[in-house]
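I had to read the description of the data format several times before I understood it. In essence, backbone conformation is discretised, so a fold becomes a row of integers matching the chain in length. I therefore recommend that a typical entry be quoted early in the introduction. For illustration, here is how one protein appears when written out as sequence plus structure tokens.

***
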Amino acid sequence: MEENGSEVSLTTGEHDVREEEPPGSSVEILTERMQKKSANRKNSPSINRLTSSFRETYFPGVSDAMWNDWKWQISNSFRTFVQLEKIRGFVRPPSYVNGNKDLLPLRITPYYASLVDFSDPADALYRCVIPTPEEYIISPGEGSDPLHEEGDSPVRNLVHRYPDRVLFLITGFCSTYCRYCTRSHMVAKKDKSHFALDDFEPAFAYIESHTEVRDVLLSGGDPFTLPDERLGYILERIRRIPHVEIIRIGTKVPAVLPQRIIPRLISVLRKYHPLYISIHFTHPRELTPEVGRACEMLADAGIPLGSQTVLLKGINDEVETMKQLMQGLLKIRVRPYYLYQCDPILGSSHFRTPVSKGLEIIKGLRGYTSGYAVPTYVIDAPGGGGKIPLLPDYVSGRDESYLLLKNYEDRLYRYPDFCTE
């Protein structure tokens, strides 16, 4: 994209492929051998109905083996509007004056594209992954790095904000780019995306020398786009450090590229328990059979799974939509963890809801569904203040020594609060 103030067309998409591919991978180019059509595709248990129809229409010569190869998915991702115009019903958004230096490129895996209604710009999944002119509009309060991660970075690739844990950014590449990404200032950027293993040495040394660090969160970009060997090396180096008690991985891969969750990856991950995985889910339509199987494989390896969801206007900001998502996650063994207020990154106002909407959703979940299905609603405070949890106000006041409380149905109850400290 051009610098601020210049006319930009979203449709050019002339990228250097080498800058976009995950580092260290060996992505094969599709050959004639890969074009052989699988005779049993329609009966394949790994393909949901929408995806099967999409494949028949737009990838008719691709076998099940190729479709289920995660490297094939990445190398055949949609990266330009010229490619998307081949999909029935898609109309390219207009060009606009670009005032957003952090604008992300377009990248959608063929699998995730199969779930999108490209004929409807108001479709929830369409809005998550298709660039629109609204991203060029910078509103008050927005910033390139609103969470002040760069200011809390003692060494390259590391953010140390909380007393006992660090965030370790190990790649800037994602298999599918979310338009509301909080790290749009770093993700997919040429100088911040690809790292040699030696680049991580200052971060390893920092963790080793800070014995208060007991929890390391690997993020990026998406760690699961790294080759098994590289991810395993990073996990092994961290697990060597005696005072690190747990390792966490933040990823959206199981939702947008479930083909990546394969036995070889599982065999790498299960070596480094206790290991936790937080998966970014946005909408109940993401909960396909393929995604369910990917999460089942991770859970069967003894890895606790949690979800992180960003509250997005017109996408998942209805109580019923959020309830379906949270209940569906429990069914595939993912515990809802955080519901985030959308961060004020550059060009994000069309995604952000009032905070009152988030409180309304939590109130509509609490009591009406299982407690396990109710995430913690948080604002990640701009300026580096960290996560601040928000709850509806259930305390109505006091009546002498009784605390007056409202339940989920807004009925008033009295609790005998006689005890003193």
